[in-house]
Design goal:
By secondary structure, this protein is α/β, with parallel strands linked by helices. The chain is 39% helix and 19% strand. Bound molecules: NADP nicotinamide-adenine-dinucleotide phosphate.
């Protein structure tokens, strides 16, 4: 039987690499990349509007993960502009490209983020919750709006509101570990802010699930048990068997990291995966302790 073709944008990134590795045995995966030169990659340059249409023909699905990395020492004006434009203009270009194909894909799984909800203290945020305010929230709303245009082409569209992805291979976890390993870990700010997280393996499995299940609309790609920063700190300290006595005050974070620090580290987002659970998706790592023990024990991912 011929394997169905899936296009993955951002397939060279943290999530993309794990997804491509997991999907490759089952599907014919093509990575749409500005730079990759592997036999299965297709060159595109969304900022210049360049892509070879023929390479996209016949795809059953598109998973759209591409976008300027949001982690940076400071969000300068030009960094913020790249974060926004790479997502909004990049997604617009992708959907305009899909419109030109003779056969449209069945499904577009388009990345978004739980930053959609803004900072909301301890309120539980399901997919029906309204967007918040602030830069990341505005980016997510505009990003989802562009992806939603694919519905006019008859494509099923999933907006993947991803939480903080926990992986040993990059992203937020490795830099978090270093201060703890040195015995310099501690809560950030009041420690009461909620963090919605997901183990990389569950994120990849949820994308696999959404490729085949007839689900349309927003999906919170987060574990069922978001934690406060205090709980995150305690769990990390327990697993690493190190003290966590040195809190990082909010004012220091604001001073050192500006808007990026307040948005990513002090914001409180308590998102829950209401739709994934009601559709029968089963998490392998529902609790933070289980996820971190899995990631930090030798020989497992
Ligand atoms: N990691 C997380 O914790 C997390 C949390 C919430 C949401 N998300 C979202 O999930 C998606 C994937 O995350 P990730 O951590 O895998 O991201 P990543 O490692 O930063 O990779 C993103 C990919 O996007 C492409 N890219 C980078 N800058 C670009 C630009 N200016 N214009 C167009 N393409 C660009 C790159 O691919 P090429 O160089 O090959 O073109 C890169 O490999 C992102 O959209 C991210 O916002 C991630």
């Amino acid at each position: 039987m011929t394997r169905r073709k899936i296009i993955v944008t951002g397939g060279t990134g943290l999530v993309g690499r794990a997804l491509v590795a997991a999907l490759s045995p089952t599907y014919d995966i093509r990575v749409l990349s500005r730079s990759a030169k592997t036999p299965h990659s297709i060159r595109w340059d969304p900022a210049r509007g360049e892509v070879d249409l023929r390479e996209l023909e016949g795809a059953f699905a598109v998973v759209h993960l591409a976008g300027e990395n949001i982690a940076a020492l400071r969000w300068t004006k030009s960094k913020k502009n790249r974060i926004l434009r790479s997502r909004v203009d990049g997604t617009r270009f992708l959907v305009d490209t899909l419109a030109k194909l003779s056969a449209k894909p069945e499904v577009l799984i388009a990345s978004s983020a739980n930053g959609y909800y803004g900072s909301q203290r301890a309120e539980m945020l399901a997919e029906t919750s309204p967007p918040g305010t602030g830069f990341l929230s505005d980016v997510c709303v505009a990003w989802e709006r562009e992806a939603a245009r694919a519905r006019d082409l008859g494509v099923r569209v999933v907006h993947l509101r991803t939480g903080l992805v926990l992986s040993r291979d990059g992203g937020a976890l490795p830099p978090m570990l270093l201060p703890f390993r040195l015995g310099l870990g501690g809560r950030i700010g009041s420690g009461k802010q909620f963090v919605s997280w997901i183990h990389m393996a569950d994120l990849v499995r949820s994308i696999q699930f959404l490729l085949e299940a007839p689900i349309d609309g927003a999906i919170n790609a987060v574990a069922p048990e978001p934690v406060t920063n205090n709980e995150l700190t305690r769990t990390l300290a327990t697993i690493l068997r190190r003290p966590a006595l040195l809190p990082v005050p909010s004012f220091a974070l604001r001073f050192a990291l500006g808007e990026m620090g307040t948005t990513l580290l002090l914001a409180s987002i308590r998102a829950v995966p209401e739709r994934l659970l009601s559709e029968g998706f089963q998490f392998h790592y529902p609790t933070l302790e289980h996820a971190l023990r899995g990631l930090l024990s030798r020989g497992t991912r």
